[in-house]
Amino acid sequence: MRFRTSAGSVAPPEPAPVGTTHADPPPRRAPTGVAARLRRARLLCGQRPPPVWCVLFEASLRAQVGGKRVMAEQLSALLSWADGPSVDLQVLPFSLGAVAVHSDPFTLLTFRDSQPVMYANDPGGGRLFREPETVGAAVDNYDRLRANALGPDDSRDFIRAVREECEA
């Protein structure tokens, strides 16, 4: 299996504490969401992690959830994860314009022996899409995001610069 994801679908191994901002999910869903992100983080940081190619919008790096110190720690964790052998991380900075801004966060899961599927969050918690037209449109959007984003090395440099701003 291979993950290809955009925006908020990836969390570092230790996500910011729930309750740190007004944008957190309603309390009845928060523990479930955090638990799911922690399980995903363990999978992505485990002994045999699947290949991951992630495109993050600059806004997801600059939104200060939990304050500057927490954000600096989160960005450090993201950089450590991005240095892993199975991770390609790209940033789509504001300066590159409104590339595929109409696209909500999604994750494409590709498999050796079956068709890809797309996972996207919705008000009910998220769902899998298997329809070829829907998945194909997501693949096209993802390809545009990747083509317009910074390369992996420049993206890590970009994340380091944002982390330094948080540490200042």
Description:
The protein is 40% helix and 17% strand. The N and C termini lie far apart (40 Å). The model is unreliable at 11-25 (pLDDT under 50). The longest helix has 17 residues, at 132-148. The protein is built from 5 helices and 6 strands; from the N terminus they run βαβααββββαα. The chain has a 6-stranded mixed β-sheet with strand order 3-2-1-4-5-6. The protein is an alpha/beta fold.
How do you describe this structure in short?
With 168 residues, the chain is of the alpha/beta class. It contains 5 helices and 6 strands, in the order βαβααββββαα.
Give the topology, please.
Blueprint: E1 2-6, H1 30-44, E2 52-57, H2 58-62, H3 68-82, E3 87-92, E4 106-110, E5 117-120, E6 127-129, H4 132-148, H5 152-167
Parallel strand pairs: 1-2, 2-3
Antiparallel strand pairs: 1-4, 4-5, 5-6
Helix pairs in contact: 3-5
Structure keywords:
168 residues, alpha/beta, 5 helices, 17% strand
Number of strands: 6
Fraction of residues in H or I helices: 40-55%
- Tell me the fraction of residues in β-strands, as a range: 15-25%
SSE series: EHEHHEEEEHH
Structural class: alpha/beta
Largest sheet: 6 strands, mixed
Mean pLDDT: 79
Shape: globular
Tell me the span between the first and last alpha carbons: 40 Å
Strand order of the largest sheet: 3-2-1-4-5-6
In DSSP terms (H or I, runs of 4 or more residues), the helix count works out at 5
Low-confidence stretches: 11-25
Radius of gyration: 16 Å
